[in-house]
Amino acid sequence: MGIRGKLLLASLSLLIVPWLGAQYIQNLESYLREAHEEQLIGRISIMATVMGEQEKRLINQNHQTNLEHNPSHLYVRPLNTAIQLDGYLDDWRHYQEREQPLGESNGDLRVLQRIGHYQDHLYIALRVTDDHVIYRSPTSRRLDRADHIRISMIDHNGKFRRYQIATMTPGWVHAKLMPSPHKSSPLSQNNSGNLPLRPETNIKGQWQFIKGGYTVELQIPLTMFNGRLAIAVVDVDDAATGAIKNLVANANTEQANELGTIVIPTPQMESLLARLTTAKNRVWIVDNNQRVIGMAGDLQQITSEQSQQHAPNDASLFSILMKLFYHITLEQPYGGFSDPLSSASRLDNPAIITALAGTAKTDWRATENENINITIAAHPVYLNGVIVGAIAIEENSSSILIRQNKVIEAMVNMALLTFLLTFGVLLFFATRLSLRIHKLRNEIDASITDDGKILQTQINSQSSDEIGDLGRSFSGMLKRLSQYNRYLETMSGKLSHELRTPITIVRSSLDNIDQTKLDNESLTYIKRANEGATRLNNILTRMSEATHLEQTILHEAREHYSAIDVIEACINGYRLAYPQQAFDFNCSDNARTKVIEGSPELLAQLMDKLVDNATDFSRDDTPILISCEATDGALSITVHNQGKTLPDDMRDSLFDSMVSVRQHKTDSPHLGLGLYIVRLITEFHHASIEIQNTNHPDGVSFILTIPVSKSPLH
Q1: What is the pTM of this model?
Q2: Range of the domain at 468
Q3: Domain boundary pick from 246, 263, 280
């Protein structure tokens, strides 16, 4: 069976996709919910760590009041604009979700409050239901013999302040500062004889009559209180006696230790929450008494944005039809719901309670819309190992529904397109694949003749797939074979270049012998001539076995020797062999005592190759620097020449066989084996070598690092 038949047969396995899709969809919702909870736990854990910067603030908030006597707490949310004080609630129509009872209704007295802050002021709106409103008498200074409002607070100096507001007619009102009580008074007690001390013009507002009661809008500077505030509305139906008929309050206004707590988020807290909150969640921060001290985000706005994002709005007809199809067949996210926690100041969710007990937890809570649930994840916040609060993050289930729909849509689209296009694509692909393989086979057959002669080395293959890699591999193989053939064919001509350095050393030494008498200096030249002859004999032996170069080096005898002695001897020879080239040699004192294991002849041949390479590329009138330094357990030998730097893409391949970067012709041919031999000798010494380009001035450094032997020199 051909490739086309096999691929078409394999394509039948795609029939399993619908079955797998059905199984996947059955578990998709539970999987997404679990993944969603894990994601929230991970995110809330990071947020809890960030909240470490705010732990001191949490502790300060916790110690502001004794909760056993005062459970009242208000978290004040910001307003978008300042409220116009006119006694009507038109400015509050965008904050209807904030309307909450001030306290428990008492008889026919019912009070609803809305509260917010803008810049430096606290704004309070009270809507009072009272069947009989009593206004203050113009002839009396007593405020408590009419319907009135009590406001008590602790100022920034820690003093307990009591204020009352009553009016003779609807309109502008100001608070009056009241004397502090001399003894505890229940909320229902009428403190008769309580006369105001002075007006407090900073607390002002508007009092307006409405059917069945009245409304009051108040403005209080934030600088007047420090986290403690209580408000009470008092119903007096008998102006003569001032007897209190009903009273509704959020806390006891007559006792300082029973005032409610109030939190105005600071700019630092709002900035922190802005960084923690994303466009898809709402973040809460509570103290260890479950009181809200920070909140950011709006789930109602998030749901609306998600629904709009999921609405079909693509321009193409196919996309519109598919979106419409999914909109009809799949459950869509719902646009709105009633969230009772949108104005909460205390959180009683089980996840919060568990987090305050020390364990991170997720929970789901229902809303009035049965199609939308809220996910909440809570994590404790610690200070010195003590829980000081918790941070919670909420997201609604619409995000899960949207993810689920997107996954289903993607899967259906994929299956539909797969079944429409698979057979055609596979048939086209199999045909093209077969043609390319046949073409590659024909090009390879035409590249080599029957007698082994290589006619061409380039296989036309520009693609990046496996067949392209195969073609490029054949090209590389043909190039290496061609280079090797040329190497064998030109071996005799290239041997003269490889032997030039040792022959020059021998010739120079012998010439000096002819010009001098047989004294100590002559003996030195004779010794160098013998060393050159020995080295020449070794090179001839290795070059006669060029095809077995690696095996020859591996069988070289090892001995312990001083690398510095070998290098110095080589440099003395180089100065004679290259009279026009200057050589500088630097060697540290500790390097001279180091002993290495290997072959001195091979090290000398390595130096010959490096110096020969350096002289070819060295800039005129610049010295070749050879330096030796001892490092930790190794000897570092550097050969540096000034000149043109090496291309970055060639530095890793220069030590390969038959690789050269020479762009100019020389008198002798180059095999491209010099640095390859350097690499083999380096490996023989268990050493390493690297090439570095240098700047100021430009040049190239070959750095050889040879491990030092611990055995002594024999």
Answers
A1: 0.52
A2: 448-489
A3: 263
